[in-house]
Amino acid sequence: MIDSYKHKGLRKQLVETIREKGIVDEEVLNAIGKIPRHLFLDSSFLEFAYQDKPFPIGSGQTISQPYTVAFQTELLEVKPGEKVLEIG
């Protein structure tokens, strides 16, 4: 599967949705805009990849809702060079 211009456009829309919900940290928004969510989902969920919702990714796991990830990351005030590992 590839990361097409369509996917990039959908990510841009997702970033705007998250921005409208109150996320203001441009670095967080830029990071969300770079994540190719469609590559992590089962093919039956591809049309929903860039909605602001969590989705199953197999083995009883889900990919987190983008707003939730953005909100948590913004609260952490992650600095350049720091890394975040989201578990559970």
List the helices and strands and how they pair.
Blueprint: H1 5-20, H2 26-32, E1 55-58, E2 61-63, H3 66-76
Antiparallel strand pairs: 1-2
Task: State the gist of this model.
Helices cover 39% and strands 8% of the residues. It has 88 residues and is mainly alpha-helical. Strand 1 and strand 2 form a beta hairpin.
Shape label: globular
Task: Figure out the total of helices.
Answer: 3
The number of distinct structural domains comes to 1
In percent, how much strand structure appears in the residues?
Answer: 5-15%
Query: Distance N terminus to C terminus?
Result: 27 Å
Kindly describe this structure:
The chain is mainly alpha-helical and 88 residues long. The protein has one domain. The chain contains three helices and two strands. The chain has helices at 5-20, 26-32, 66-76; strands at residues 55-58, 61-63. Strands 1-2 form a two-stranded antiparallel ribbon. Strand 1 and strand 2 (61-63) form a beta hairpin. It starts with a helix and ends in a 12-residue tail after the last helix. The relative contact order is 0.17. The mean pLDDT is 91.
